[in-house]
Give the backbone structure.
Amino acid sequence: MPKSQSEALEAARMNPESSLRTGQGSALQGIFINGGLGAAKLAAGLLGHSYALVADAAESFSDVMSSCVTLYGLKLAAEPPDPEHPAGHGRAETIASAVTALVLLGVGGSIFWHALFSLGEPRTAPNPLTLLILVPVILIKERMFHWMRNRGKEIGSIAVVADAWHQRSDVVTSVAALAGILVAWIGGPSWSHADSWAALLASVWLMGTGLWLLGPTLHELMEGSVDPALLDFVRETSKKCEGIRGIDKVWVRKLGMRLMIDMHIVVDPDISVQEGHRLAHEVKAKLQRELPQVRDVMVHVEPYDADRPAQPYRIQTGGTR
């Protein structure tokens, strides 16, 4: 992948304060819009006798909760290091992403359970006027999904990306409700449970999405590999410092939107300890200038040995989606 197309590398180049404001702005927008849409869908579902629309409203309110968790996670992740968390609080953002995925799983399971039992109950056919709520909701939420996902990728936040997929889940439940109401309306009394079946299908999609979103979160918590383009940039940028004979190993960890780098630089064996120390700090300063999201760089200095086989360039830890 060309470096210019690496989302992880571009996110690392962003100013941390700007990234935080972007993420918090996305979460706040989600809270206000989903709160309004959820209230409208709940009222329309109760008045229009549509279980799928009521279930859709529950999904919208879970979106509000998801955005609140994302907002709090981003706020906590921005806290400076302290004695108990010397590497900072960046993992709070990763945990917020996990909570969002688990909420989606829980909401999907709850909708499935209630929709399943509603199949055997007498039903009044949904009012077709409820479609007037669903069509604009679908358009608004699909636009929100793309907007939030792009912002999440731009700042390298898996919590914002997970929140965006939570918005997409609302699109799916709304489409399912739309289909169920149409079938029940056109098919007549014998199809009055069609929107319950629609809610069942939507709930399965919600649970699947929740499980899928847990993947990148667990990958980051387990310090899985980061984007190779980001590691290449770290290696090539470090080698440009005068006096560096090579880069032996690079280890990158992702703590929310921030990065921690551990690396081994190879230097002339005849230089002084003071000069090796200076080179290590020069590498650190250069990387932090080029990648503002780098919180810290730990540099180990190794002497150059022409007879020693070159160590393979290894990706040890890190993680982005």
Observations:
- DSSP finds nine helices and three strands in the chain.
- Residues 312-321 have pLDDT under 50 and may be disordered.
- The first strand starts at residue 244 and ends at 255.
- The CA atoms of residues 269 and 305 lie 8 Å apart.
